[in-house]
Amino acid sequence: MTDTADYLPFVLRGIYVTIALSVCSLLVATALGLVGAWAKSSKFSVARGAAEIYTTLIRGVPDLVLMLLLYYGGQAVVNRIGDATGLWERAELDPFTVAVAAIGVIFGSYMTETFRGAYLSIPRGQSEGGKALGLGGWPLFRLVIWPQLMRNAMPSFTNNWLSLMKTTALASVMGLEDIVNKANAAGRATHQPFTFIAIVLIIYLGLTVASDVGLRVLARRLRVAETA
Prior knowledge:
Blueprint: H1 2-12, H2 14-40, H3 45-59, H4 63-85, H5 95-120, H6 124-132, H7 137-167, H8 179-190, H9 193-227
Helix pairs in contact: 1-8, 2-3, 2-5, 2-8, 3-5, 4-5, 5-7, 7-9, 8-9
């Protein structure tokens, strides 16, 4: 028990990395999802085709495989560009940056379908009514479409966020010092791997429960705001 108590602060410091990775990845995924939803709903066939390829390809590749591909493949590409141009010597990609990019790209494909479905569920008359009032472009989107889009997307958005947060555990295989990486190190040092992995389980469970409750409250407020 003494070893566990001694290493517990070391493990808990990884929570900040896990939360930062989750939030940054969510921002990337949300941005890609909005762009992807726009592309899939676009009148341009090239945009629709590109979005369809993106969502189909990304959802067909295991998350861990894609993360490792970006980590090692991206590093090889960066170094080849450096060798060809002479602008830099051998570079080491930051695991945090690669993890954010990989998880953001992965869940951007799911967010694409989330926002697209939410947009299609908005009654057509809402946009037509806004245009009749003289709204168009950004004002129409901000005042009419966006509030309803977020309200309709919240259930699926919540599920994506919870899955994304749990997927961050895979980043430990790239050497990112998140809570899983630190728990593994503490388990090896103390010969108590089960104890520290159990601690990680409890922490992830706490984060997901808190997130679920918070997003449910937000969804309820969005519904109340719309009916007010």
